[in-house]
Fold each of these.
Amino acid sequence: MTKSIHSEIVVMGAGPGGYAAAFRAADLGKKVLLIDKDPTLGGVCLNRGCIPSKALLHISKVMDEASHLSSMGVTYGKPDIDLDAIRAHKDKIVAQLNGGIAQIAKARKVESIRGTATFKSNSELKVKTENSDISVSFDKCIIATGSTSAMIPGVAADHPSVLTSRTALDLVDIPERLLVIGGGIIGLELGQVYAALGSQVSVVEFLPNLLPGTDSDLVKPLHRKLKKQFQSILLSSKVTSVEPNDDGTLNVTIDNDKETLMQVYDKVLVSVGRKPNTNLLNINATDVEVDQQGFIHVDVYRRTSVKNIFAIGDIAGNPMLAHKATHEGKVAAEVASGHPAAFDVRAIPSVVFTDPEIAWAGLTETEAKENDVAYEKGEFPWTASGKAIIMGAKQGKTKILFDPETKQVLGVGIVGSGAGDMISEGMLAIEMGADAEDIGLTIHPHPTLGETFGMAAEVFQGTITDLYIPKKNW
Amino acid sequence: MIKEIILPDLGEGIDGAEVSEVSVSIGAAVTPDDTILVLESDKASMEIPAEVNGTIAEILVAAGDEVKTGHLLMKIEIFGKAPEEESPTKEESAPVLEVELKKPEPPQPELVLQDTSSADTVFASPGVRRLARELGINLQIIKGSGQKGRITKDDLNGYIKLQMALSSGTISAPPLEIDFSQWGQIEIQKLTRIKRITGQRLQQAWQSIPHVTQFDEADITDLDAYRTELKTEVAKQGVKITFLPFLMKAVAIVLKEMPEFNSSLDHTGQNLVLKNYYHLGIAVDTPNGLTVPVVRDVDQKSIFDLSEELMDLSSRARSKKLKPDEMKGGTFTLSSLGGIGGTGFSPIVNPPEVAIMGISRSIWKQVFDKTSGEFVTRFAMPFSLSYDHRVIDGAAAAAFTSRFATVLTDISHFKD
């Protein structure tokens, strides 16, 4: 028998976008139903993405720092790695956060159903749960079903030696030889984790740079470090075939301009991007418009072409970032609850949680050059930062791009330890329309890495005293 | 279901009324336009309609009762269902079976979303951008008052206030810039500070006070003779005696008799403040514009004292040496154009005062004297009284001007 229920607002997907939307709408007095296929709330980010990967990256970073203590006079022995304990530690963190979200949902009286939801019409869903089908009619629906790792043609996705970000985080074992296909954020983060745990890691990137699209000066310190940590970094190269051997290893063919390489790896990690989960929604039963890449087209209110259906997060377009989804989730919930909110932001920050970290917000130099945007730059090398020297993080840098006319901050780029935490000041500067003077005249505590943000602005203004820069115009 | 009839806001500051008639009895069938109750307030009588089809279930007031806004007057059992609201009937109040029985709520008015999403060039923080969206303001047209032109929340509030003022007609849209030189030679003269301030005050007074002007004429033949006599008497003391001190004395006398002319409306607009002092503002024309020094306690001063004080005030007004305090506290204003000309004009009340008198040029004329049956020559002074009609009625104004004219005919008032 099909049960049928009605809800004012249905949220499909309980990731960082979905649960934010559900909770916000509940706070605005709406009756909310939250549907997710997972047994726990939190989506990919919490269960199989941001959180578990950062739990592991924290371990690999501390291991690396500990090994560098020998240059400061403290030498540790070779670390003992208990993979089961690491996995348990990671799972515990995830479970703790899962529990937190579940509690918050309960406190807000947000009803949740575990099941797979598909559209029946512009106002109705079918939800398949473990033991029944439920028909859900809604006044408003917010689609927040996210994305899945993309695969490359010719690679057997279900082979146990072929990993995605999801299975890589399961930490089944530490392969001796790991090939990371795709030198983007996820590939480099997980590559660094496995390298720290003992794998010989190689990376293949189709484009001529790691982290394609990121300013090359920010990538450089990371690239230099990865060269030491990884066995090889193959740029402008393409994996043309991955053939399983009987012993579970994989024969991989890599092509580039110069040569064709044949290598054997114990495992490969496919991290060539993510694709929106649109095809799982039976979206054709609605009038929601979807673009060629499978992204749902939305307006500034995060409404789809059907005005009572909203879409947020990965499924509504790039960049696929949890914090973008959360912000969008709140906008959609507010608009769906009758408030005039809109997705009206000046920038969305990006962070690569490798060691060193890379973070940027707003305009990048790469974009500026591609689009012919005029800018001026203030840059502070961490070689002149006391704190960075203490931490052994001299390779870092902080740069700020300014509007040549107004001197307002257009973009910020940081590479180095804690870049992800420091980018928030840049975001605030961008949203508030701060200019070089505002930043330079703000006292930053000493000695910190955060100080480098103020100094970058002072370099631009010519008021810096921590560096000697031959006369600027002042 | 039951419709409760509640006394609505009657407007015009009326918060209560007396029931003069109950037009229906319990059990009577009514249609929406039927009168069920007649009320009487200080100003008018009102009929309260049934608003619905139904039968009178309960009557909670009787003739003679005082009722106030919000008071429950009557209950009507409605035929059929009210379109505007649902109320749970007894059958439906049985335990709700399942969530699925819940009806979708009636369609709410669709949120009107204006795309006010800010261009990146707008200098405003996220919170200000959000407020702009809520208020439906396009930030592109707002001029920021913050540092470096930042748009603040105050700017948005100010913009809303301006829009409200514009739409209520309190102020008008900024006038268009016209290039007058296209039709001939022009020159630009800067308005003096006094002119600009006076201009604003006059505009505000003119727009906020419902003005009426009463015109009249006073026979000052005897007064003129008395003044001439007095003039020569005091000329040796260097004091010039004009008509003005006599007019001031006469005004003070009438103000004492008719106190509402010597009053102000309080800030609530509900009360009249009657003043037991008689400070008269005297409009003085100066090279820089109009100033109104105030002569205090006119009722207690002699013609001679007033003459002296007027000479002092007007000479200091012309040389810009008046103190701010000397232009405050007036209870009534006199504006005399008698020395210049004209047969009558309507001055603008000087708030918070409620009346102003305008004096025009006196003339000699032939008046028919009924007792002697002959024409006699009399000296007549035309004057006008503009007043705030919220405070003063036309009849009172007419009484004021004729009493003022009468006082001027009797010179005993001025001998002290």
Note: DSSP finds 13 helices and 22 strands in chain A.
Amino acid sequence: MICAFAPRPASAAGQAIRLALSEENLPAAALSPSATPAASASPSESPAPLAIGTPLPSASPGPAVSSQPSPAATPGESQPGAAAADVPPPADLSSVPVSAPVSASSLEPLIQKTADPSLGASLRITEEARQQIGENHYDEAIRTLGRALSIDASNPYAYFYLGRAWLMKKDYRQALTFFSRAELGLGSNPPWLGETVGFEGVCYEEMNRDQDAAMAYQRAVQLAPGNLMARAGHGRLASALPPPPVPPEEQPTAENADQPPPEENEIRTVPEGEPLETAPPEEPAPPPAVPVAKGSSSN
Amino acid sequence: MKRLFKIALFGVCGVLLFAVPPILYFFFSYYYTLQSEVIQRFSGRHWNIPSRIYSDSTLIYAGLDLDSVGFFQRLARLNYHRVQSANPPGRGEYSYDRARGRLVIFLHRFPYPYKDFPGEMVELRLAGGGTVAAMRDAGSGKAVYSMQLEPELLSGIFQGSWEQRRLVRLSQIPPAMIDAILAAEDHRFYAHHGVDPVRILKAAYVDFTSGHLRQGGSTLTQQLMKNFFLNSERTYRRKIKEAMMAYIAERLYTKDEILENYLNDIYLGQRGQEGIYGVWEAAEFYFSKDPTDLAIGEMATIAGMISSPNRLNPLRHPELARARRNEVLGLMLQDGYISKAAYDNAVTEPLHPRETFTETNDAPYFVDYVKHELAERYPPGVLTGEGLRVFTSLDVHAEKLAEKAVDENLDELEAKYPRLRRKEEKNRLESALVALEPPTGKIRAMVGGRNYRRSQFNRVIQSRRQPGSVFKPVTYLAALDETLAGGPDRFLPTSYIEDEPFTWEYGDMSWTPRNYKDRYFGRVTLAFALQESLNSATSRLANAVGLDRVRAMAARLGFGDLPSYPSIVLGGIEVTPMQIAHAYAIFANEGLEVEPYAVTAVVDQNGRVIQGHELKAAQLLTPQLAFMLDFMLENVVNHGTGSGVRRRGFKRPAAGKTGTTNDAKDAWFAGFTPNLLAVVWTGFDQKEVLNLTGAEASLPAWTIFMQAATASRPALDFAVPPGIVIEQVDPLTGYKAGPYCPVVAEGAFPIALAPTEICPFHTASSKTASDHVAEEQFAPGEPTD
């Protein structure tokens, strides 16, 4: 079997929005009033049929992606939404232009940039899957993405589209698992990371976990302020966000005072946030915290 | 005289009166018995179609080194044939100009589970060394980016003999093919009623003049009846029965129905165990074509084979096959089926001898595993009779590499350690290897033992042995998990643990683990304890973490509910190599569990997918936890008990763990790169003492296999997840390494817990003799596991 695929002729914002938002099982509320200008944009012309043997064009213009600086990715958490609580709420977004979802346009620019042939081949197969998702062939896309991962396990876009396919199949737990996995590889790519986290928000929302969804949307907006879906979700679920954390200096200190001193026989323990070792004494002390396990016969 | 005549007449009439009715009765009873047999056969399922088990397909793409995937060996196994012309004329052929770096391959047509591939010609431009530089569709000239070589046939599932056939309707067979068969076998087919007296007389004359039965006068209908109901014995009794049945069949069914059955039924040769039946299967096997694509000469060749399929096999005996073909072409010309011009053209068509691969059961242990899995879902009759096509995850190239690695390693061990040799086959040293792709769960290779013919016991899934130290990572995971979860105890790779003799009291019992060769290191870091596989230190750690936490982690990794004995922390349980592979795949896959699987799809005779596989995953460990462990396991390979991997030349980023049981009966090595994992076990089935470590007995096979099997894969490193930082530390003090620290090691830490202060103990003036001692102590030594 040979594989060559033609990218969709349009990678314009209209089509991108259609792919990202008009899919039937996304929350209906995703198209909030703030989203309407872009969301109501008519889809571009219907995609060209796939043709075996058709080469990809040399360059495929990507969508306009917001170039707003994004805050650094929060430390990895298995539940990305949880980390979002640490991120300050986004600033006024009215001046930030809405950008098309990056995942709705061709991966061809990425493929062109890739020097590694395995990753290139894996991305091409991922692009094939992206098109299959666009044509509502979710099972086929999942199989295709398995092939992409078989070639290059480091391809985060394959995980992202696995999340998309499972989302469309309404298996939100699976979708979340793959979106979380995609996050690991997209850490240095805020637009993609923002979109991934935005879709995590969609999953949480579908699972009626509004607080997690709100935090995910908030984080997504932080990462990709132009992301329409995240902005709409953030606006919709802002009230579900937990109250901001109290600064440490305002916290009562009694709790800390109540903490018992570490036991002598305990393996070295360090309170969170503190350095591993206390500052070295002037005279170097013996190496710290010699652990002895319970029941040990050692001396 | 007249009276005598009357008596005779009465006698004859009496005989007729009393004898004929019973004769007629018996004749018609027999006739109707035969008729019901014929009806039953024609109206029921005519043939049992065996199921076929296929390997995974192979993706070829620009940038791939063809040698690294065993490309040309694959072509040979798939019965692709090299031709001299620049562009191969037919499917299943390829041309290769090594000097110009040009390979043109005309791919077979193949019905994949979800779509049919018609077979196309692809041109590959090769850079030096066989790397694909570019590919294009040779027909249209357009660039293509990948090409899939069809799956390889591994085995069939059948009862009795393996009769492989593809059922076709008469309308699917080209008329010229039918003409050729009629000309060769029964040119009066449409004129007779099942039995051809002219043909019988001719055959009888030949038999009479030669003195014994030489020539058959059977029509196609008779041949079909013989194949359906009778044996091949050449007796008049069988011939009479055959003729009666043929007559009955012709009375009940149309010529076309009989012909369609015949074309699907005839035996046309052998490929290994697999019998080739029916014209479609024959066209595919001998010419890599559908019958519709055959040239006249090729059709005549197949038609000519019917009388003696193996003697007239065009691949093995092209001269004999050519002579018979020309004979058939002559008959076709004589009967007016072809013109003189077509005849002249066809007799000049060349017939080349070709190598054919007759080996089919390439991965016997894997095939058994698949059959076992299928048997849980499908009744035996369905598997052996309904022609299912089973697609699997196996990579035949990887399987061959695995078999070679196991063989080489065992031979080497027996040569090096004569005490391991056994006279009796059944007592010989054994080994098992399983290879998985962690991101997808695909089982890529499975070697269940040394010799399948001798022992079908699949040690990968059936042999439960003690894992020894390959189980140790479970304890370290439990400890690190406690830290990352913010539990009261904090365990980091640089945390200290005593490596001294130690007794674990539990209930009214006690357990005293001992290090390998009773060598103890004193105070060590967790990373060092795992790197050197220290039993005492690991047991202390498990004690500190809590046995229940270790058991809970083991359960999370799929080991089930383990007994509450301390010895489990050093692998005092029994597991299969597959269980170890499953658990290690979670480590390799950044904490994501993807169930290992073998069957990717099952397709019925109509091309309908009746069983598929979906890529699903579960995050069993956080990526941070998995990475911290992976980093420690990388140290095992780079500096510790698994450093033989590096000494043997495997350079890619890899993590792994050796395992040796206390009683020295089992030797393991489990290791992985981010995209491929392999587990090797070595030992005796009778649980005799092996007295070799995992590093000595199993690591070499792992390395041999992984070096070759990962050659086609990108050299990925383990990706550092967010929230984790890699720091250089002084393993003697646990501080961040300073310029004067005698030993520096790297460790993976949660950002918040990473050491930030430079080691205060080692300064420009502090280097002492004791440091040198420490330096030696922490230097990688010989494997201690």
Note: Residues 779-784 of chain B have pLDDT under 50 and may be disordered.
